[in-house]
Write a structure and sequence with these properties.
Blueprint lengths: L11 H24 L6 H13 L2 E2 H8 L3 H13 L3 E5 L7 E5 L1 H24 L8 H11 L5 H10 L13
Antiparallel strand pairs: 1-3, 2-3
Helix pairs in contact: 1-5, 1-6, 3-4
Length: about 170
């Protein structure tokens, strides 16, 4: 059962399917980063993706794009600078301003993750059954299921039970 705060309406099926797809894509990205054996968290990876898509940014602008405090971006980018994925450059006219941009290694990492993620999504699309779907929500849910992930409804059902103690076979219940 979905939490009580979840709305119902004609778009509910699509919203639920997209929420499940979001979890699926995060999982794909996480697994891709793990296969590359890089020491980068998802939040650090998100920062370098934004830098890849928007070009060099001031610390304050990257913080705004990520919806975090500038001090969070400073700490995140300090780690990425040490790993050789991000470079920090002083402003040309105001040296108090710090610009952040990707190094070649950072650019290569983002490109490789994106290529691998796209390949995995292509496999999901190719593996789903070829029966016609009624609507976009059904298509998205089919992709989630093809990835081996729970649907939104299944996820929330598990969420309801996730703090219950495990019962091993042969144990008496109740």
């Amino acid at each position: 059962m979905l939490p009580a705060s979840t709305s119902t309406g004609p778009e509910t099926g699509l919203v639920e399917s997209l929420a499940a797809l979001s979890r699926t894509l995060v999982g794909i990205t996480t697994r891709t980063l793990a296969t590359l054996d890089v020491d980068v968290t998802l939040s650090q990876y998100r920062a370098i993706v934004v830098l890849a898509s928007r070009g060099p940014l001031r610390t304050v602008d990257l913080a705004a794009a990520l919806h975090v405090h500038p001090s969070t971006v400073t700490r995140t980018c300090d780690r990425l600078v040490r790993r050789g994925l991000v470079a920090r450059h002083p402003g040309a006219t105001d040296r108090r301003v710090s610009w952040l941009g990707l190094t070649n290694s950072g650019k290569e990492l983002v490109g490789e993750v994106m290529r691998r993620r796209t390949d995995q999504i292509r496999e999901l699309v190719g593996s789903r059954r070829t029966e016609p779907v009624r609507d976009l929500a059904e298509l998205v849910e089919a992709l989630v299921v093809a990835a081996g992930e729970p649907t939104e409804r299944q996820w929330w059902q598990q969420w309801e039970r996730c703090t219950e103690p495990a019962v091993t076979p042969g144990e008496r219940t109740g």
